[in-house]
Write a structure and sequence with these properties.
The chain has helices spanning about 15-20, 25-35, 50-65, 65-85, 85-95, 110; strands at about 1-5, 5-10. The chain contains six helices and two strands, in the order ββαααααα. It has a two-stranded antiparallel sheet. By secondary structure, it is mostly helical. The termini are far apart. Helix 4 crosses helix 5 (about 85-95). The protein is about 50% helix and about 5% strand.
């Protein structure tokens, strides 16, 4: 099992798919990394040499913001919006949808489970 950016990536999966287990790397980024390092897309992680794993690790460290740094940056951006008390920050603070979605119906993922209101039925 290879360890890249503090994450144990599964050894029985293809390299492109295994790299997506790292927070901040999706399919497109994983494909560009393997293309840049001339690693065949059908190769499995268990078939990689230690040198290739080292090259992947160095490429990710040099070009990508992943895992802890990315999570920290995202949370600091949200905290900044909340401290500014701008519209988006207020929506984050209240736990409501931030990007203009409707809240009359739907938005259950952000608002949580529906709370019954007594005496509402008529």
């Amino acid at each position: 099992m290879a360890r890249i950016a503090g994450v144990n990536i599964p050894s029985n999966k293809r390299v492109e798919i295994a790299l997506t287990y790292i927070h901040g790397i999706g399919r497109t980024t994983a494909k560009s990394i393997t293309d840049k390092l001339n690693i065949a897309p059908e190769r499995r992680v268990q078939d990689l040499t230690d040198q290739e794993v080292l090259h992947i690790r160095e490429a990710i460290d040099a070009d990508q913001m992943v895992e802890g740094d990315l999570r920290r940056t995202t949370s600091m951006n949200i905290k900044r919006l909340m401290d500014l008390a701008c519209y988006r920050g207020l929506r984050h603070r209240r736990g409501l949808p931030v990007r203009g979605q409707r809240t009359h119906t739907n938005a259950r993922t952000r608002k949580g489970k529906a709370k019954p209101i007594a005496g509402k039925k008529k």
